[in-house]
Design goal:
Layout: H1 3-15, H2 17-20, E1 25-29, H3 32-51, E2 55-59, H4 78-82, E3 89-91, E4 98-100
Parallel strand pairs: 1-2
Antiparallel strand pairs: 3-4
Helix pairs in contact: 1-3
């Protein structure tokens, strides 16, 4: 947990440094254990943003998350992206041949 968050923040830190200082990032997880793991990983590389309050950690269910913003927000569901199938196996029921898709 936290690897995608760190990669996302690293991207701005190394490729768009002028924007990095103004990044605001929220981590939301229903599991307090996983949220603490994420927090630990992010703090190791992005402690300045955490200390400035630009990175926030919230232990909550996405369906219960309530917030409003006056500016555009990028909302990325990393957990959903993590769980997409990586490989696909197809079996032709007529020939019983196996294909990788």
């Amino acid at each position: 947990m936290g690897g995608n968050s760190v990669a996302f923040l690293d991207y701005f830190k190394h490729l768009y440094f002028p924007l990095y200082g103004s990044v605001r990032y929220s981590c939301l997880d229903i599991s307090n254990y996983l949220l603490e793991k994420c927090k630990s990983q992010i703090e190791s590389d992005h402690l300045t943003l955490v200390r400035k309050g630009q990175i926030k950690f919230k232990n909550d269910d996405i369906s219960e998350y309530k917030t409003s913003h006056s500016e555009p927000v990028l909302f990325v569901l990393f957990e959903i992206l993590d769980n997409l199938p990586h490989d696909k196996i197809l079996i032709d029921t007529e020939s019983n041949l196996i294909f990788e898709g």
